[in-house]
Amino acid sequence: MTRDDLFARYQAAAAAYRTHQATCTSCTDTSRCPAGQRLYESFAGLQDAYLNRQRRQRR
């Protein structure tokens, strides 16, 4: 997986989560519906992976 691929996946996951959050009446800042939770976890995992890669490259 290239850095650009990881970044693109991270950004796509963020966009998917934002889109869901904007239309879901069940999701709040502190709780999420099952679909929202899945999207958030995907976004958060990809964000962590991307940021960890960035930190490793700066060392």
Considering the chains and any ligands shown, give keywords for the structure:
59 residues, elongated, 78% helix, mainly alpha, single chain
Give a structural overview:
It is a single chain. By secondary structure, the chain is mostly helical. The model has no long low-confidence stretch (mean pLDDT 92). The relative contact order is 0.17. It has helices spanning 3-23, 34-58. Helix 1 runs antiparallel to helix 2. 78% of the residues lie in helices and 0% in strands. It starts with a helix and ends with a helix.
Q: How much strand content do the residues show?
A: under 5%
Q: What is the first-to-last residue Cα distance?
A: 20 Å
Strand/helix succession: HH
Number of extended strands: 0
Task: Please summarize what this structure is.
The protein has 59 residues and is mainly α.
List the helices and strands and how they pair.
Layout: H1 3-23, H2 34-58
Helix pairs in contact: 1-2
